[in-house]
Amino acid sequence: MAFNMAGRSYNLLNLHQKYSLCQPFISTIVDKFITQSGAVVCVGGYATLSKEKKDKIANGPDLGDFISGDASPSLSYSGNLIRKKGERLRLPPWLKTEIPAGKNYTKVKNSLRKLKLNTVCEEARCPNIGECWGGGENQTATATIMVLGDQCTRGCRFCSVKTSRKPPPPDPNEPVNTATAIAAWGLDYVVLTSVDRDDLPDGGARHFAETVRQIKTRDPRIRVECLTPDFRGDLKQVETVADAGLDVYAHNVETVRELQALVRDPRANYTQSLSVLEHVKKYKPSLITKTSIMLGLGETDDEVMRTMEDLRAIDVDCLTLGQYMQPTKRHLKVHEYVTPEKFDHWEKVGEKLGFAYTASGALVRSSYKAGEFFLKNLAEKRQAGSEESTMDMAVSKPMVTG
């Protein structure tokens, strides 16, 4: 598909390939372009416009206006937020993000490629990659490293990570390379995650643990969060990671109990995920536990509430809630775009339920940097044996932008 704007031709296929992270946004760009300019878009060729329309386009908005816009209140948005049968929802304005760019972004990307490291930021096509790798307002570059390769043995319907029945064996140099990269970046907080490796006897737990130890050996001050798989429910492997010296143990329930079979691989389930989080807290109470829920998959408010109550019942410390985004046409469609006001509501609910930290926003992801400084401070206080109330901590937590 191509279109002509101000005498220049733009090929949407090239845009789609060049900016793979913006796949869900390309159709929105075109829709908005047509609406504001009156242009004609055609498939397999170029539109012919009159001189009057060309002048109108030349004096109108540029491409940047379509890629990134202000997050207007949801009440001013006239588009449909809940999907009807056979429909694909258009992206609301509060979910638009900028194309990744900047020196920090390039530096992190080049370092990762040189050391042959994978990140969930790229594999899951996270919309925050430009902000996190670029450093954002605080110029603190953050990347979530994905160990154990980039091929998962499971096929969840929400996830764009590549799948394989028998992925290549883990790189034995990966723990050292990962620690080397993190030390070089000068980070004080890092998130490690991984694909599911059901093909390995221990699910990759020892590889995970060795990566943590290598990081801590180089700099014990670095706070490490591990976002782990469920290890097929093998709690001994959960203990292997918990004993490695990490500060935050994270495992995602992903969605409400009622949607587990629709959203996740059959080898994953709600009860199994809860057992991982519960066992970590019982086995090592000093560890901070953390999980994440995607919204917009068709869950009800009552189901979300019950899920949050289930998590507090097993003493999960931290919770993130974010908008599900369809990564490709092969994956589950978005059932609903949740409004910023509803995300604010769930954050308040999380605080009332007693979570030490609740990050709730459309663009919040399980490893999004918004909560890192709070978690880092909480980890330090717990390690020092502090009995200070987490309520005092919550007062100084950073704002989550979504």
What's the topology here?
Layout: E1 2-5, E2 8-11, H1 12-18, H2 26-37, H3 51-58, H4 63-67, H5 103-114, E3 118-119, H6 120-123, H7 129-134, E4 144-147, E5 151-152, E6 162-163, H8 174-185, E7 189-194, H9 205-218, E8 223-227, H10 235-242, E9 248-250, H11 260-263, H12 270-283, E10 288-295, H13 301-313, E11 318-323, H14 340-353, E12 357-360, H15 372-383, H16 390-395
Parallel strand pairs: 4-7, 5-6, 7-8, 8-9, 9-10, 10-11, 11-12
Antiparallel strand pairs: 1-2, 3-4
Structural commentary:
The protein is of the alpha/beta class and 402 residues long. Helix content is 38%, strand content 12%. It is built from 16 helices and twelve strands. It has helices at residues 12-18, 26-37, 51-58, 63-67, 103-114, 120-123, 129-134, 174-185, 205-218, 235-242, 260-263, 270-283, 301-313, 340-353, 372-383, 390-395, and strands at 2-5, 8-11, 118-119, 144-147, 151-152, 162-163, 189-194, 223-227, 248-250, 288-295, 318-323, 357-360. The strands form three sheets. An eight-stranded mixed beta sheet has the order 3-4-7-8-9-10-11-12, with helices on both faces. Strands 1-2 form a two-stranded antiparallel ribbon. A two-stranded parallel sheet has the order 5-6. Helix 9 packs parallel to helix 10. The longest helix is centred in the middle third of the chain and has 14 residues, at 205-218. The protein is globular, with a radius of gyration of 22 Å.
